[in-house]
Amino acid sequence: MITSEDFSHKNQWDVALNIHELNETGSQEFKSAKYLSSVLKSRGFKVTEKYAGIPTAFRAEKAVGQGGPTIAFLAEYDALPGIGHACGHNLIAASALFSAIKSAEKVHNARIVVIGTPDEEGSGEYSGSKILMANRGFFDDVDIVLGSHPGDSWDVGRQSLAVQDFEVTFTGTASHEAADPDKGRSALDAAILTYTGVNMMRQHVRRDLNVVIHGIIKEGGTASNVTPEKAVLVYGIRSSDIKYHGELVRRFSKIAEGCASATDTSCKIREIGPLFTTTKINPALSNFIRDRLVGRGAKCPSLEETFSKQPGGSTDFANISQIKPALELDFQIADEGTPWHSHVSLEAAKSIKAKKALDLVIEVLSDTAKKFAEDESFREKIRHDFLTNSLS
Ligand SMILES: [Zn+2]
Ligand SMILES: [Zn+2]
After folding, report:
1. How many angstroms separate the alpha carbon of residue 316 from the centre of ligand 1?
2. What is the pLDDT of residues 168-225, one digit of tens each?
3. On the chain, which terminus has fewer CB atoms closer than 10 Å, C or N?
4. In angstroms, rounded to a whole number, what is the distance separating the alpha carbons of residues 329 and 205?
5. What digits encode the pLDDT tens for the residues 69-86?
6. For residue 90, which ligand has an atom nearest its CA?
7. Ligand nearest to the CA of 340
8. Whose atoms come closest to the Cα of 88: which ligand?
9. Considering just the CA atoms, what is the radius of gyration of the chain in Å?
10. H/E element, 37
11. CA 298 to chain CA centroid, nearest Å
């Protein structure tokens, strides 16, 4: 009898819908991690929970035959605070699981791995968990990393922006705003000046390096008759060039410190989470996957066409591409131009279009795993491109 506990009967679409419904935000994906682990266990994978010391991470693996390379699929399953699975990470989870399950059926000699990587969106304590894992050597035994991400187009090598988030806390002096204004020093004034200063800086940056700077005022005081003694800004600074990104961060810090000085307050700048790098593209891997997609009817542009598009997002998958041959396949689940992190993408992540695209992604990624496991010259080409190409 099939009960709700019989996970071996769950298919990719069950998983996608279940994770969509669980709707757990970054670093809080306890039920999602448990559910995904159960599905993998039911298919004969050996699961390590709390992988790398991260409570909602896991690693599952299955050895097929003797020896062979280690092929890792990365699962994400964090939702966005407030809106839910509007980035479609429920589909990434389903794709990683079933690409691995299919791969284990297709290969003769390989170790097939799924790594559950929480908090890609950076909303919790383990923000950018892939980077935390990589820094502690948890990708060292892996030969290739495959992932996927839903969006409004097919792409096999989209560049991503380096990003670092910052929290800037200004500290002033509280005082009665009518009786003792001379004794007060406003942290809010420092925050507003900084916000304005950063707006001015935007005019004087390189246009060709996709600079994006976005910020909010998170705290700006508690009562209008008390000088705000604490104000907090949160910013994200992005660029498609990692060196230039460092230059932007230096200028940003100077603005905040200068504005604190100008208002007789002090400021502390804290990095939120790790630095997400740009993506290192692997043409051999991209071209193989693109051929398979096109052969099955997907409208996937060439690598050159993809490169002519302006990069928009950032991901901790990029950091993995810098240390191992890796590809995150972008798959289309919504019309081109659909805004992401929106109510439209939230619905798209459980649509029929997503269901069809997911099936195709699983076919193509498991074919790629098979090719990698069995064709030494393919492995060599990928290794060569990883060591030599400069598309990063
Ligand atoms: Zn995403
Ligand atoms: Zn997102």
Report:
1. 10
2. 999 999 999 999 999 999 999 999 999 999 999 999 999 999 999 999 999 999 999 9
3. N
4. 31
5. 999 999 999 999 999 999
6. 1
7. 2
8. 1
9. 23
10. helix 30-42
11. 24
Q: Distance of alpha carbon 338 from its chain centroid, rounded?
A: 19
pTM of the complete model: 0.91
Q: Which amino acid is at 126?
A: Y
Compute, in angstroms, the gap from residue 192 CA to the centroid of ligand 2. 28
Helix (H, G, I), strand (E, B) or coil at 376: helix
Residue 245: Cβ within 10 Å count:
23
- In the structure encoding, which two tokens stand for residue 373, read together? 């496991």
Taking a 5 Å cut-off on Cβ, the residues next to ion ligand 1 are: 87
Q: What are the chain's domains? A: 7-160+278-388 (3.40.630.10), 162-275 (3.30.70.360)
Tokens representing 323 are 């240390």
* Amino acid sitting at position 220: G
Residues in the chain, overall count: 392
Q: 282 near 137, Cβ under 8 Å? A: no
- Distance CA(344)–CA(3), nearest Å, equals 34
What is the Å distance from ligand 2's center to 52 Cα?
23
Distance 88 CA to ligand 1 centre (A): 7
